[in-house]
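How a chain folds remains the central question behind the approach discussed here. The record that follows shows the chain in one-letter code together with its fold in token form:
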Amino acid sequence: MAYNEHIATRIREQLKLFPEEFIEKKMFGGLSFLYKGKMIVGIVKNDLAVRIIENKMNNELTKEYVRSMDFTKRPMREFVYVSEDGFKTETQLLHYIELGLEHAKSKL
């Protein structure tokens, strides 16, 4: 697979904290987690791909391990990559899952 299975396991464990139901889907050459058909987070190799509402993008992009998602060789709107050092702790990972869930709910 083109994604880090250990990261997938960590995400699955964090998602158990939420009452919502999530599904997994292969996307972007990796694995994504969706809420009601909307992507919240995904894994591409060792990076976390996160959907973030527009008004929080600038703040997140100032963080050391966060960069615009450039899967198509151009920055994608409301998507970021977070390198592994940016979500070493479960609290950090949970932060990105919550941002992704917020984004998904805003699109329903």
